[in-house]
Amino acid sequence: AVSIFWFRRDLRLNDNAGLYHALKSGRPVLPLFIFDKEILDELEDKDDARVTFIYETIEQLGRELQQYGSSLLVIYDKAERAWTNIIKDHHIAAVYINHDYEPYARKRDNAIKEILSAHGIELKTFKDQVIFEKNEVVKDDGKPYTVYTPYQRKWYSSIKPFYLKSYPTEKYLKNLVKIKALPVPSLQEMGFEKSTMHFPGREYKNVIEDYKEKRNFPAIKGTSHIGIHLRFGTVSIRELARTAYASHDKTWLSELIWREFYMMILYHFPQTTNHAFRPEYDRIQWINGEKQFEAWCRGETGYPIVDAGMRELNATGFMHNRVRMIAASLLSKHLLIDWRWGEHYFARKLLDYEMASNVGGWQWAAGSGTDAAPYFRIFNPDAQTKKFDPNLEYIKKWVPEYADFSKYPKPIIDHAFARERCLKAFKAALAK
Ligand code: FAD
């Protein structure tokens, strides 16, 4: 009998909690990856860069496993059907996975657990992608925090060296099943094309010490761009948090804690993917102008900072955090377009798309979320530009025609007008 380790968003051999426990089980470990048809079928773009990223990572994992005389079993199917077949083909003692907190993944994992259990196979699950999960950092009365600062305080007071320690997976890789290289379905067979997008590397240490000073300026590379690696587990959160914790300035660590905060929120409030965290905000009468939405998506709002951000996003799959806030605010507050439309567009385009953080970021911008900016605080895109892109370097990089700004199209909506309209719409919804 074998143990199976099922890779999902933890695509690495080193410091991997579930893989470590599988390898220590004493049985040979068969590593598995499923290209889940249910997820892939939802994607709108045939050249979705995240699929290429996963694909290339899977190929790399396969090569690494071959060095241990092993291979990766790669299946393209719906997860439940894939498992029904795997059970037929293999004599399985136990299956190991790492936790995934997204609503779809939780439902899927429960279904797989039942299928396995009907065959007497145990599903063993582990925390891997965060330092603290679920109910590990909660208020004294056991309820989840809904405000970041006290959550962060509790996170700090709960941390012990144990939580930051890596799992020494390497030591046990000899326990992998010995098999010949298995075939991998091609991207084309799965209906995708290879993306030509550039993927950021895994360096992050160089940004930590100056992060506080540099993180707000989109024209400089003051942030790590490591989001995609956190998303797919091609880096270990323990390594990142350990390094950040040991550094002099803890601002970057607090960003990693924001990530965990939003994952905890998503776990406890899964309805917030589609509903306002503060329910009264679901009463807002959105205007949802389709033409304006399309102009926003293309980066043609006439607000150069927003246009630069949207064009950066469309071209690279990345947008600077400061600009994400400004662009999201413009959509939800100036244009009164439902934040879910913007969330959906970001989800389609961001290489570092993370459901918990994206929903959290959008609800923050719309005013409906945890810790949200109060609705009457409405970003002024020009004032934001003066503060954070004073020499217009970022704007000119992504919107070169702005060099002659006398010819740049006028904003699709006037700031003062939009501000008043927004205040009225939000007040009306919240007064009910
Ligand atoms: P760094 O600044 O170097 O930070 C390191 C890591 O910390 C990030 O990779 C990320 O994992 C985490 N982090 C940083 N800031 C935040 C934050 N505010 N909330 C949660 N985690 C954070 N982040 C995502 O990872 N995925 C998303 O889909 C996403 N959507 C967003 C949507 C909106 C409207 C807004 C305002 C923010 C969103 N963020 C999202 C948060 C933040 O903008 C990105 O994490 C950050 O810009 C990624 O750049 P970086 O990797 O260089 O991060």
UniProtKB/TrEMBL annotation:
User: What are the entry keywords?
Assistant: Chromophore, FAD, Flavoprotein, Lyase
* Cofactor needs: FAD; (6R)-5,10-methylene-5,6,7,8-tetrahydrofolate
Which parts of the sequence belong to the Photolyase/cryptochrome alpha/beta domain? 1-131
Pfam families cross-referenced by the UniProt entry: DNA_photolyase, FAD_binding_7
GO MF term set:
deoxyribodipyrimidine photo-lyase activity
Similarity comment: family membership: Belongs to the DNA photolyase family.
Q: Which PANTHER family match?
A: CRYPTOCHROME, CRYPTOCHROME CIRCADIAN CLOCK 5 ISOFORM X1
The protein's name in its UniProt record: Deoxyribodipyrimidine photo-lyase
Source organism per UniProt: Mucilaginibacter pocheonensis
